[in-house]
TrEMBL record:
Domain named 6-phosphogluconate dehydrogenase NADP-binding: residues: 3-162
Organism: Paenibacillus nasutitermitis
Matching Pfam families: NAD_binding_11, NAD_binding_2, PilZ
Record-given protein name: Tartronate semialdehyde reductase
Domain PilZ, chain residue ranges per copy: 323-429
One of the GO BP terms on file: organic acid catabolic process
């Protein structure tokens, strides 16, 4: 059986490689970051340390990574794929990248007496797991015929799109429609929520009427359950929309809807939603209309009761809790994740994820603690525990205190809707109640 090399074992690549292994293929694996191939090794995969080493032992190479820069690193970097490529190899790139880069890779492969197919996929994580992906393929038809059996081991359909670059172009056009569909679904739900329509009933209507779509079927249940676990991340959707925008500019094709939807997903990313599912863009609308768009009737009643209690009887409770926080500094120790972004050249950001704790809530923001030094006026994205049901929130460091083995930061919150502020207050007050009797004065 043909020897396959697989590069990129993330949300999509991992399940795709697993399907090849389950169907008996000999697969050698490479991933830029460690820790993602243990299950694949258990299925019989072999590990290699560099793309060049993988290329030297493979007859078909499949790559599935996130963006153009990652492709350039894998193909052209130190010990990159091209430095070990053997004549006669078929390369299949399933990433969503720019058509211009695809044509460059195809030319480089031909110069090394190898063949290249651009074969991006439609279908998110569930389709990758159950082997129902659809491949849209650019490149020579005869080469595709030789590779089709391998593609069908990971998917249900292979559609030839034309010469090199055609698969990438088709994918960007396709994902433009996906982004527009999701934005339309969420916007319609926002209108319905503002008009007092039950979200579950509205989703049932959408799925039964002229507004039905695969995105409504896939994302409707996730929105109702507020399950923003990743099938396809918001940041990747935004990356594809940006690529599509650049492509349409080059093709001199007007795309006013694309540009509007791209801006919407940019807002979502600026709110810290990039690592969540693209359906999490619903949080943007919830801030604008100051209510959840996905709540059921009973949830809305509970929210109204909560808001009323916070406005009336809740004053004494919140004031006493605030007084206690100021006087005693109750140590809440609620675990947080903090995304720290740094500006790089050409308008890009690089980021890292830190562990932190929520120590206190003030009128203007939060006090958080980490073991890592941050700087005044630095912006961080705060990820609350899942049970808080809060979206990521952007905060600016406005105060720094040092203590033994850690730093404490005062964070001014931005972009937190009033109802979410009430939700945060309630969440923290529950922890204060739980910590009652165990509070330790803090000087």
């Amino acid at each position: 059986m043909v020897k396959i090399g697989f590069i990129g074992l993330g949300v999509m690549g991992g399940p795709m490689a697993a399907n090849l292994l389950r169907k008996g293929y000999q697969v050698t694996l490479y991933n830029r970051t460690p820790g993602k191939m243990d299950k694949l090794l258990e299925l019989g995969g072999d590990q290699t340390q560099t793309p060049a080493a993988l290329a030297r032992g493979s007859e078909i190479i499949i790559s599935m990574v996130s963006h153009d820069d990652a492709i350039r690193e894998i193909y052209y970097g130190d010990n990159g794929l091209f430095s070990g490529l053997m004549p006669g190899t078929v390369i299949i790139d399933c990433s969503t990248i720019s058509p211009a880069l695809v044509r460059q890779l195809a030319a480089e492969s031909a110069a090394r007496f190898s063949d290249f197919l651009d074969a991006p996929v439609t279908g998110s994580k569930p389709a990758a797991e159950d082997g129902s992906l659809v491949f849209m393929v650019g490149g020579d038809r005869e080469v595709l015929r030789r590779a089709e059996e391998v593609l069908l081991a990971m998917g249900r359909k292979v559609i030839p799109m034309g010469p090199s670059g055609s698969g990438a172009t088709a994918k960007l056009a396709h994902n433009t429609i996906v982004g527009i569909n999701v934005a339309g679904l969420v916007e319609g739900m926002a209108i319905a929520a503002s008009g007092g329509i039950d979200a579950a009933s509205f989703i049932e209507l959408v799925q039964s009427g002229g507004a039905s779509s695969k995105m409504a079927d896939m994302k409707g249940p996730k929105l109702l359950e507020r399950d923003f676990s990743v099938q396809f991340s918001l940041s990747l959707m935004l990356k594809d929309l940006r690529l599509s925008s650049e492509l349409s500019d080059g093709l001199k094709t007007p795309t006013p809807i694309l540009e509007t939807v791209k801006s919407l997903f940019q807002m979502g990313e600026s709110m810290g939603l990039g690592d969540l599912d693209l359906s999490s863009v619903a949080n943007c609308y919830e801030q604008w209309i100051n209510k959840r768009i996905t709540s059921h009737a009973e949830d809305r009643q509970g929210h109204q009761e909560f808001a009323a209690s916070a406005e009336t009887a809740g004053h004494n409770h919140s004031e006493s809790a605030a007084d206690r926080r100021r006087s005693e500094r109750v140590e809440l120790q609620i675990p947080l994740k903090l995304s720290i972004y740094q500006w790089e050249q050409e308008g890009a950001f690089s980021g890292q994820l830190l562990e932190g704790t929520l120590c206190n809530l003030s009128d203007s923001g939060l006090q958080i603690a980490t073991v890592s030094p941050l700087e005044l006026d630095m912006f961080v994205v705060i990820h609350f525990p899942k049970d808080s049901e809060l979206p990521p929130v952007t905060g600016r460091i406005i105060r720094i205190e040092t203590s033994v083995n850690q730093f404490r930061y005062g964070c001014l919150l931005t972009g937190l809707a009033p109802y979410q502020r009430l939700q945060l207050e309630s969440y923290i007050n529950k922890h204060i109640t739980a910590a009652d009797g165990n509070s330790v004065p803090h000087s």
